[in-house]
Design goal:
With 346 residues, this protein is α/β, with parallel strands linked by helices. It contains 12 helices and 14 strands. InterPro entries: AGPR (IPR050085), AGPR_AS (IPR023013), AGPR_dimerisation_dom (IPR058924), AGPR_type-1 (IPR000706), NAD(P)-bd_dom_sf (IPR036291), Semialdehyde_DH_NAD-bd (IPR000534).
Length: 346
């Protein structure tokens, strides 16, 4: 059995990670840490774990944590995974970071968008962007996996076939995305207060959201040309889920049916990407609680634009589920191990 530790186990993504790892047949939950709830059992903080996860939450002792585990997951705000990554490297273990510290290869870009000094720059070149559908082979041999952000996962999977096949003008990409409130994390804030979000629909981070450079970095690599996008996220009055509507100008005339076949060919054999048939469109309810990304592609012949719809559960494929998928790649076991379930409906 592989011994794993989860640092930041009581955030939304951390708790989902514990839930998924608890049912993984090749994993033992060795260490769960929490700054706020150290000394309490996991089920005392999250009663749905009663009788399932008996671990007591511990304070973080980095050297001891790494020594006790084979693989460490960090589900922490940006800036906090760097010292853990350094210790993981020193002890020759594996790290899957659900935060942003190792996603961006350019230090100046990271520091510009996150307003935080990067203190582990020597590890950036060896870190692999953990989107298995695109970087599976590199992930297999990596010591540090940078688990992608939720919006980038939804967007990159939506655009990859178009950019790889040079079917759109990269300068025309517009991403209009909507997310459930859990994407803002478990910390208290006025923005996510019940009376502020219920019966409300609002944009935020307009032209300033920190996931923008992450998307541009990965899309640039796919297109082999520098890409700058318009990205506008919105907060919706639901708990979980992301629906991204992506627009771009086509570079050649094609039908929706032809594009759908290109998407199916591109994602052939991918367990967690579902390319939907004509007339069926992604919806957050259809992926809630699952590791699926649902995609549809439609051409508007009047404008010559393509409209891509992409839906994921922000806490699963956009965070914890993708982290477990990356673990499976590292372990060499089937990628659906511990993830072989459909979503919850209704």
């Amino acid at each position: 059995m592989v011994k794993v530790g989860v640092v930041g186990a009581t955030g939304y993504a951390g708790a989902e990670l514990v839930r998924l790892l608890a049912r993984h047949p090749q994993v033992t939950l060795e260490v769960l840490t929490s700054q706020s709830y150290a000394g309490k059992a996991m089920w005392e903080v999250f009663p749905h774990f009663y009788g399932v996860v008996e671990n007591k939450l511990e304070e973080l002792n980095t050297a001891e944590l790494v020594a006790r585990c084979d693989v460490i997951f960090t589900a922490l705000p940006h800036g906090h995974a760097m010292p853990i990554a350094q210790e993981v490297t020193r002890q020759g273990k594996k790290l899957i970071d659900l935060g942003a510290d190792f996603r961006l290869k350019d230090v100046a870009t990271y520091q510009q968008w996150y307003k935080t000094e990067h203190t582990a720059t020597a590890l950036l070149d060896g870190a692999v962007y953990g989107l298995p559908e695109l970087h599976r082979e590199k992930i297999k041999h990596s010591a540090i996996v940078a688990n992608p952000g939720c919006y980038p996962t939804c967007t990159i999977l939506g655009l990859a076939p178009l950019l790889t096949n040079q079917l759109i003008d990269p300068a025309t990409i517009i991403v209009d995305a909507k997310s459930g409130v859990s994407g803002a994390g478990r910390g208290l804030s006025l923005k996510t207060h019940f009376t502020e979000t219920t019966n409300n629909f609002q944009a935020y981070g307009v032209a300033t959201h920190r996931h923008t450079p992450e998307m541009e970095q990965e899309l640039t690599a796919l297109a082999d040309t520098t890409i700058t996008i318009n990205f506008t996220p919105h907060l919706t009055p639901m708990i979980r889920g992301i629906l991204s509507t992506i627009y771009a100008q086509m570079t050649r005339q094609m039908s929706s049916a032809e594009l759908t076949e290109i998407y199916r060919d591109f994602y052939q054999g991918e367990t967690f990407v579902r390319v939907l048939p004509a007339g069926m469109y992604p919806a957050t309810k259809n992926v809630a609680g699952s590791n699926y990304c649902d995609l549809s592609v439609t051409v508007d012949p009047r404008t010559g634009r393509v409209i891509v719809l992409s839906a994921i559960d922000n806490l699963i494929k956009g965070a914890a589920g993708q982290a477990v998928q990356n673990l499976n790649v590292l372990l060499g076991c089937p990628e659906n191990t511990g993830l072989d379930f459909v979503g919850i409906y209704p």
